[in-house]
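Data availability (excerpt). The following record was deposited with the supplementary files.
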Amino acid sequence: MRSKTLDMTEGSLGRSILLFSLPLVLSNVLQILFTMSDVAVVGRFAGSLALGSVGSTTTMVMLYTGFLVGVGSGVNVLVARFVGARDEKNTRETVHTSAILCLLVGLAVLGIGEALTRPLLTLLGTKPDLMEGAVLYLRIYFLGMPALAVFNFGNAVFSAVGDTKKPLFYLTLAGVINVALNLLFVIVLRMDVAGVALASIISQYLSAFLTVGALLRAHGIHALRVGFLGIHGDKALRILALGIPSGCQNAIFHIANLFIQAGVNSFDTVTVAGNAAAANADGLVYDIMAAFYTACSSFMSQNFGAGKRKRILKSYYISLAYSFGAGAVMGGLLVLFGRQFLSLFATEPAVIEAGMMRLIVMGCSYCVSAFMDATIAASRWIGKSLWPTVIVIMGSCVFRVIWVYTVFAYFRTIPSLYLLYVFSWSITAIAEILYFVHSYRKRMRLFKAADPEGEAPVPMI
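Predicted structure:
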């Protein structure tokens, strides 16, 4: 498949960011559909116990995949910065270092995930009747972590050069195969939980294979060549300096959600199943909004590398507006059509009603998270990843744990548990914006002193 890369340093930013983000929106949606189709198929064809087993693993799956996505964001920022500066040597070294690094990280996540599956599920208070199904699902699913890491590497490189169409095409193909295999393994072969997990990892390896193949066939400065593969120490350290805090931020974010899951697990099985069905909306909305965060990092990084000072902050504002709008629209649709959405995953009316309690609260809250996440993405182009991570840990992680053991412990109602999301997002967003404003002003003073006209390429820092 042929597609052109996008020049992020010229032309209308509003139009360019939208054109860049739309294929990425579809790519992200297809990626989350891998998991959603698992839940939908087992919920409709294998019963509520299978639905609860797979649904109770959602937070753990997001914990590990979120870490891999964070590492990929480090690749995206650094490649985009070198591409913006038209620095062929450093771009090539970053791409080839990233390929090896992401594979190694994926293998490490596989090993850790397999070792900690049962202990973490036990810590979560997973119900005994759901435990064995959840363990089986995760142990099969984690076999796909190396493939997911490699795909995220390829997706990050393509996004950095403005080509978001190839990953979309490959995920579309893999997604169709995933759904077909789900139906085959569950309905025909009666494999239930094991079947949907197996279908997911087959699809993940296919998308990784196709993405790497496209990079090997590419002819630009981002092309992958076997002979250049190797670890360049300075690039590896910079990728890890950006990616590991971001990955840990995502992981710790979901560790806090483990406490929320434990709170959900204190209710009856119907509530647990309803929460599992409604939680599918989270990944769907987050991933749509995340496309604009990727655009924010990519556009700010390329324009920073190219010395286009006037376009840097404007990229942030436009990306923030798009992500806020996407969250508001998707949240509103889920409130209005929540029962129809939940019927994709469950057939029991009680489960659907339990799911609606979550959808109503979350549907009104998603858009608030844009102020937090878009600002974090903006901080990365400056090279600031550590302190935004610390802020997230305090505002969206520690705060949530405190909420669970104070507000929720007092009221003991499911809405009081769900409301912690919007409060934690609001507090964290305020702190992230204050930090970004401070860091941006400091960087711009250095930028202006070095280049009063604002049009010279910026040295990599």
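Summary of structural features: The longest helix spans residues 88-123.
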